[in-house]
């Protein structure tokens, strides 16, 4: 189980990403527009730097929703391989069977 602080920190980051996504996208579009005047692009870059760092999508970490484990994460199931195996062995994931030959 991951530390609760790390799980909460990641939740807080997700909220900030959702909050600033539209504003960040608009400012990035201005900075990448080659037709816009240099001063306007520079102002947009400064405004982008004023936004909180944790509002950037890059700073998110995929974590297992069951245990909070950051590694060996399956995006489709939103859980780690260890949690997947435990729930699968208990029969709590429909359609998942342990292979044997």
Automatic annotation (TrEMBL):
GO terms for biological process: translation. One of its GO terms (cellular component) is cytoplasm. Signal peptide: none annotated. Keywords: Ribonucleoprotein, Ribosomal protein, RNA-binding, rRNA-binding. It comes from the Bacteria. Pfam families: Ribosomal_S14. GO terms for molecular function: rRNA binding; structural constituent of ribosome. InterPro entries: Ribosomal_uS14 (IPR001209), Ribosomal_uS14_bac/plastid (IPR023036), Ribosomal_uS14_CS (IPR018271). Part of the 30S ribosomal subunit. Contacts proteins S3 and S10. Belongs to the universal ribosomal protein uS14 family. Binds 16S rRNA, required for the assembly of 30S particles and may also be responsible for determining the conformation of the 16S rRNA at the A site. This is Small ribosomal subunit protein uS14.
